[in-house]
């Protein structure tokens, strides 16, 4: 912010030169780690795709005529995965598979950190499926540019008991947000959905307030939080991709996403989930969950109960390793005899 202020005196300008040169030197170095993430000494270098992203014309010039429709063409976004790669052969397999997908502009792989960054308009669901088709485990760890926005991404998870799903929101620029969602457990047909004022779920969707609409948007025909319509197939599954103008992800944290029984929003929704901050690119390189000792590769969809069709699910607080052994929460693990107090 200091460089955006007017320089009052020549002395001030001269004093600012060393800092400016230092910043320029850091930004131009292809091997430098971004200083914001210095707590991780081996944080992957992200400058390659950052430069590509900054100059991508689709970030600046877009046709918004489909912004309220499902399955709209998405704007380019930087997405980051952790992929279980062991060798250069893994790298080639991952790159080749991703480059086959429509909408992928560039792929950058950091083998030492097992990180894959993808620039493009492809939905998360499609990229995740492609990575898994290579026979390797893949976990989404970041989306959006934290350097450009205070909060670049958010997520809302529906965990049942009837409706399951995930909604992802990412800031593309100050006037545009990208939205992706997938649901299961809905009744076949059309369902309205919206972002509501509050994240109070004490009475389910009934306690989430009105549809979110900032003060400066009160004169519009449709509230800003109106997300349009989902269409569930005969199995009750719905998938949505689209963009929303004037929607700022940072304003949505702590509010909720609500799904309705039909296109009629006059009644309370049938389900709701709180919107939480999600990691941007470069903000989440953890490999171990400190709450229960689960590694990123041991974690599965069953841990988070994100789908109705997952079959048997472990009880709360218990994770299953791939070999079938249970991992108990730290506070429920037996205390070794040597560490027990003696009377």
Automatic annotation (TrEMBL):
Residues 1-22 form the signal peptide. This is Superoxide dismutase copper chaperone. Residues 76-139 form the HMA domain. Keywords: Chaperone, Chloroplast, Copper, Metal-binding, Plastid, Signal, Transit peptide. Residues 308-343 are annotated as: Disordered. The keyword Transcription regulation does not apply. One of its GO terms (biological process) is superoxide metabolic process. It comes from Sphenostylis stenocarpa. It comes from the Eukaryota. It is found in: Plastid, Chloroplast. PANTHER family: SUPEROXIDE DISMUTASE CU-ZN -RELATED (PTHR10003). Its cofactor is Cu(2+). GO terms for cellular component: chloroplast. In the C-terminal section; belongs to the Cu-Zn superoxide dismutase family. Gene3D superfamilies: 3.30.70.100, Superoxide dismutase, copper/zinc binding domain. GO terms for molecular function: copper ion binding. SUPFAM superfamilies: Cu,Zn superoxide dismutase-like, HMA, heavy metal-associated domain.
């Amino acid at each position: 912010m200091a460089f955006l202020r007017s320089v009052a005196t020549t002395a001030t300008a001269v004093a600012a030169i060393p800092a400016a040169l230092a910043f320029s030197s850091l930004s131009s170095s292809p091997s430098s780690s971004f200083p914001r993430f210095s707590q991780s000494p081996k944080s992957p270098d992200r400058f390659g795709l950052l430069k590509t992203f900054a100059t991508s014309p689709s970030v600046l010039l877009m046709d918004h005529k489909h912004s309220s429709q499902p399955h709209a063409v998405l704007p380019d976004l930087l997405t980051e995965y952790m992929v279980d790669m062991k060798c250069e052969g893994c790298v080639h397999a991952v790159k080749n598979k991703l480059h086959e997908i429509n909408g992928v502009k560039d792929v950058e792989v950091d083998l030492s950190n097992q990180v894959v960054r993808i620039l493009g308009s492809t939905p998360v669901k499609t990229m995740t499926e492609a990575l898994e088709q290579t026979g390797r485990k893949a976990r989404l760890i970041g989306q959006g540019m934290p350097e450009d926005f205070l909060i670049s991404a958010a997520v809302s998870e529906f965990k049942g008991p009837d409706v399951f799903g995930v909604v992802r929101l990412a800031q593309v620029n100050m006037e545009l947000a990208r939205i992706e969602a997938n649901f299961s457990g809905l009744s076949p047909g059309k369902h309205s959905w919206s972002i509501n004022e509050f994240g109070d779920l004490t009475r389910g969707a009934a306690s989430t307030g009105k549809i979110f609409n900032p003060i400066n948007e009160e004169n519009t025909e449709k509230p800003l939080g109106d997300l349009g319509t989902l269409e569930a197939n005969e199995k009750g599954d719905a998938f949505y991709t689209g963009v929303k103008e004037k929607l700022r992800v940072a304003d949505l944290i702590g509010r909720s996403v609500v799904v309705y029984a039909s296109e009629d929003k006059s009644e309370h929704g049938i389900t709701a989930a709180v919107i939480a901050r999600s990691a941007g690119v470069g903000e989440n390189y953890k490999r171990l969950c400190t709450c229960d000792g689960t590694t990123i590769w041991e974690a599965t969809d069953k841990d988070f109960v994100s789908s109705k069709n997952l079959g048997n699910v472990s009880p709360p607080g218990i994770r299953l390793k791939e070999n079938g052994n249970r991992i108990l929460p730290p506070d429920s693990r037996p205390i070794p005899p040597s560490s027990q107090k003696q009377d």
